[in-house]
Design brief:
The complex is a heterodimer. By secondary structure, chain A is an alpha+beta fold. Chain A contains 8 helices and 9 strands. Chain A has helices spanning about 5-15, 20-35, 35-50, 65-80, 80-95, 110-120, 195-200, 205-210; strands at about 130-135, 140-150, 155-160, 165-175, 180-185, 190-195, 210-220, 230-235, 240. Chain A has a 5-stranded antiparallel sheet with strand order 6-3-2-1-9. A 4-stranded antiparallel sheet of chain A has the order 5-4-7-8. In chain A, helix 1 (about 5-15) packs across helix 3 and helix 2 (about 20-35) packs across helix 3. Chain B has helices spanning about 5-15, 20-40, 45-65, 75-90, 105-110, 120-130, 135-150, 150-160, 165-180. In chain B, helix 2 (about 20-40) crosses helix 4 (about 75-90) and helix 6 (about 120-130) crosses helix 9 (about 165-180). Chain B starts with 5 loop residues before the first helix and ends with a helix. Residues about 110-115 of chain B have low confidence and may be disordered. Classes of the chains: A alpha+beta, B mainly alpha. Chains A and B meet through helix 1, helix 2, helix 3 and helix 4 of A and helix 2, helix 3, helix 4, helix 5 and helix 6 of B.
Chain lengths: ~240, ~180
């Protein structure tokens, strides 16, 4: 996907909406980790955006609003508030002391979260550990991931991802080398999910450079083998150890 | 619909980011007709469109904190969420019959009718001028894609050209628009 592609035309067709489903899903995921692509998409959004002005408003069906309210009620019940999350992280940090804080290259928030996800492995920190915070924005981490590269073991912990009725969260490995996103399975139905065999087929290099993304799929996972639902959370894997 | 001033909507979104339900209700009242207009154009099947509109407002609720008034107007930001969600949905479905797609050009020209002209933003006027520079068929292809979410395959059928031709035309049209818009 990297060879000779025109990022700007991809972004243009993404915004116009004409990319086929698979390419569209891949672009959505890539934009999380490729600032140039994300900027090109924003620029095209600004160029074509004025067209929506010409769309006449139409009264939305009355049934929609009560459904939205109900979904937001459900969301608010399960989501940790930033305050609660911070309190949890501070507690864990205190217990862990200064463990590896210096080695972590991520942002301060990510760094504290790394400790959070890393504590299971604290007794024998593996040689090569990658970590990622999957989030929809800087304030809202939803999943914490750690990858033991040598054992090809991925641990994912749901922090603030709301379980959704009749839907499943599916984890994807995204790397230009792979052309299309690869499923790593369903996650988030329990606090910890350990992903083993699905990672075995990928080289450390591919895993190291990958972005992880979580999409919302029909219960049981994507019927097509490609993300079909919205990508809710994504993050890049980072080195946690030197 | 009376248009809510952008500043008010920005303030409301800031309150939504702080989980203010009253502000969220106000945002819905002020914008749902516009977003519904966007979504049903792309998803003519009503049940599907209703589900998508729900998703759109749940996302607005979740992401209000990421709205940046310096980057986009509130309605542009919300319209982008609505269009993206609707396009995601339509792209992964097998196409609805082509007759479901209304004429996009009518919509596009509406914004240019003399009565509306004062209301039309400078950005839209400029974009329309650039669109006028495209060959009429190619302009219609761009507008049908944007307004109605038609895929390359659907456009190929509708205009009786190979998909590869449609793709090339789209690329050329978009490149021409970019040049005309001067950025």
């Amino acid at each position: 996907m990297t060879n000779g592609e025109d990022i700007d035309l991809i972004a243009a067709e993404y915004v116009l909406g004409t990319l086929p489903a698979g390419e569209r899903a891949a672009v959505t995921l890539r934009a999380y980790s490729e600032p140039r692509l994300a900027e090109a998409i924003e620029a095209w959004g600004r160029r074509l955006g004025p067209l929506v002005e010409a769309i006449p408003p139409r009264e939305a069906p009355a049934t929609v609003w009560p459904e939205i309210k109900a979904r937001i009620d459900a969301l608010e019940e399960v989501l940790l508030t930033p305050k609660q999350l911070t309190a949890q992280i501070v507690g864990i940090k205190r217990r862990l002391g200064r463990w590896r804080a210096a080695a972590v290259t991520a942002t301060a928030l990510a760094a504290s979260l790394l400790l959070f996800v890393g504590y299971r492995e604290i007794v024998h920190p593996p040689e090569r550990t990658l970590v990622a915070v999957l989030q929809k924005d800087a304030q809202s981490p939803a999943f914490l991931v750690s990858v033991d590269l040598d054992r090809r073991l991925l641990t994912i912990r749901a922090v603030a991802a709301e379980p959704q009725r009749g839907k499943s969260y599916e984890l994807w490995l995204v790397n230009d080398e792979l052309k299309t996103p690869r499923s790593l399975g369903i996650v988030g139905d329990k606090p910890f999910t350990v992903v083993g065999p699905q990672l075995a087929g990928y080289s450390p290099k591919v895993i190291e450079d990958a972005t992880l993304a979580v999409s919302l799929e029909p219960e049981g996972g994507s019927p097509t083998g490609q993300p079909t639902g919205p990508v809710l959370f994504a993050g890049k894997l980072l080195q946690a150890t030197k | 619909m009376t248009k809510p001033p952008a500043a008010d909507l920005s303030d409301l979104l800031a309150r939504v980011a702080a989980r203010d339900r009253e502000a969220f209700t106000a945002v819905y009242k002020a914008t749902s007709a516009k977003l519904w207009g966007i979504v049903v154009r792309i998803l003519p099947r009503r049940a599907m469109a209703e589900d998508v509109l729900q998703d759109v407002y749940v996302r607005i609720w979740e992401r209000a904190a990421t709205f940046d008034p310096a980057k986009a107007s509130p309605i542009t930001w919300m319209a982008t969420i609505a269009r993206n969600r609707a396009i995601d949905e339509v792209r992964r479905r097998t196409p609805v019959s082509i007759e479901d797609a209304p004429e996009a050009l009518e919509v596009a020209e509406e914004g240019l009718s003399p009565a509306d002209r004062a209301e039309v933003s400078q950005d839209l006027r400029r974009l329309q001028e650039c669109l006028q520079g495209l060959d009429p068929e190619r302009r219609e292809i761009v507008l049908l894609a944007y307004y109605n979410g038609l895929s390359r395959d659907e456009l190929a059928k509708r205009f009786a050209h190979p998909v590869a031709t449609i793709k090339t035309w789209l690329h050329r049209s978009l490149a021409q628009l970019r040049k005309c818009l001067g950025s």
